[in-house]
Write the C-alpha cells for this entry.
Amino acid sequence: MTGARVFGGVLLALGVVAFVATLGVGDGWQASGPRLAPAVSAAALVVLALAFLVRPGEKLAAHVTEAGERTHWPTPALLVALLVGYALALDLLGYALATAIFYWLATWLLGSRSPVRDVAIAVALGVVTSFVFSEWLNVQLPTGPWGL
C-alpha cells in the first residue's frame, strides 16, 4: 500500500511540473494554441494522481505481479526496437512508406494472421495519414527519396 502511495505522489509531482511548464508555452488559452492540450493533459494527470493517492486499491500489487508473470517480455522489447527503427527510417524512407512498414511489422509481431489485410491497411494508413497532414493540416511530413 505504501509503494502505491509513493507512486501516486510521483505522478502528482509530474502532473504539477507538467502543468507549470505549460504556463510558459504560448500566449493564451485558445483551442488552437499550443497551451491548451498539454494543460488539460497535465490537469488530468493531477486529478488521476490524487484519486490514486486517496484510493490506491488493495488488489493492485497482486494484479501487477500476476500480469508480470504472464507477460511474454521479448514482444514488448521487439516493439520498442521496431519503434526505434521506425523513428530512424522516417527521414530515409518517408512517412508513408515507413509507417506502412512499421504497421505491417507491428501487426505481425503481435500475432496477426492476415498478412494481406495487414499490408492493405498499412499502405492505406500511411498514404491517407500523410495526405491528411500535408493537404488538410498543412503539416509537411518527411517524404523520403520517392516523394511519398
